[in-house]
Specification:
about 230 residues, 7-stranded parallel β-sheet, 7 strands, binds NADP nicotinamide-adenine-dinucleotide phosphate, SDR_fam, SDR family NAD(P)-dependent oxidoreductase, Sc_DH/Rdtase_CS, KR_dom
């Protein structure tokens, strides 16, 4: 269902991970601004309290996606799932231990797949939308980011596979690939005023969720107005 199709008496619901910071936080705030009910997930208690205070439509849920019961996060009715939580270790392959590989895949990929699996019955009922926040690293790899890039390549495959599987059910699946964005995650040595604003990436996520009923936006690349090298 799109905003334009929305029955004014019906409140749409989004489950947003990574909602305590950066891109996910902006997605939560923008959706609430549009009248969506938002379940905002993260670990940072102070940031969660700020979200609760920011809008009556936001309900925060404290959860560690690497440890807690993900099925319990999914409400009965869901119209959009946004998996924005992620970690980005900056290590060379020769220095990356097995458990570090496992952690980055567990959060960036498996948690998104698990939440999608638990939300699918509700998403099928609502003909809803799943958005995976990927990265430029989803299509390329650089030195010191192989674990991150490998996880984001896997996340792209997850999105493509899920989209193909859910074609008949009407669930839409979108990958958003942000370039360097001004959040705590980005530690590159650049003039930060040239980075993408997290609110701009969030607008792309919201565009995917609110796209016209007859389409799905499959892949959205969000690049800085002027390309950066760092
Ligand atoms: N910033 C960039 O340049 C950039 C570029 C391309 C793609 N991305 C992608 O954009 C997404 C959002 O990143 P961001 O830049 O907004 O980063 P951020 O500001 O560092 O936010 C990361 C989010 O992930 C959550 N998170 C981390 N570990 C978690 C865990 N174990 N359980 C639950 N939540 C956890 C954090 O919440 P808590 O700490 O509260 O748990 C936080 O809300 C990520 O998928 C990232 O890969 C970012």
């Amino acid at each position: 269902m799109t905003i334009s199709d929305q029955d004014s008496t019906q409140t749409l619901t989004a489950l947003v991970t990574g909602a305590t910071s950066g891109i996910g936080r902006e997605v939560a705030l923008q959706l609430a601004e549009l009248g969506w009910r938002v379940i905002a997930v993260g670990r940072d208690r102070e940031a969660l309290t700020q979200l609760d205070e920011a809008s009556a439509l936001i309900t925060s849920r404290a959860a560690d996606l690497l440890a807690d019961d993900l099925a319990a996060l999914v409400p009965e009715s869901v119209d959009a799932l946004v998996h924005a939580a992620g970690i980005s270790p900056s290590t060379r392959v020769e220095d990356t231990a097995d458990e570090d590989w496992e952690r980055v895949f567990a959060l960036n990929v498996t948690a998104g797949a698990s939440l999608a699996r638990h939300a699918l019955p509700a998403l099928r009922r609502s003909r809803g939308t799943v958005v995976f926040v990927n990265s430029g690293a989803g299509t390329a790899a650089r030195p010191r980011n192989a674990p991150y890039a490998a996880s984001k390549h896997a996340l792209r495959a997850l999105a493509n596979g899920l989209r193909a599987e859910e074609e008949a059910s009407g669930v839409r699946v979108t990958t958003v690939y942000p370039g360097p964005t001004d959040t705590p995650m980005f530690g590159g040595d650049v003039d930060r005023s040239e980075l993408i604003r997290p609110s701009s990436v969030a607008r792309a996520v919201v565009m995917a969720i609110t796209a016209s009923e007859d389409v799905q936006l499959t892949d959205i690349h969000v690049r800085p107005r002027r390309e950066l090298s760092w």
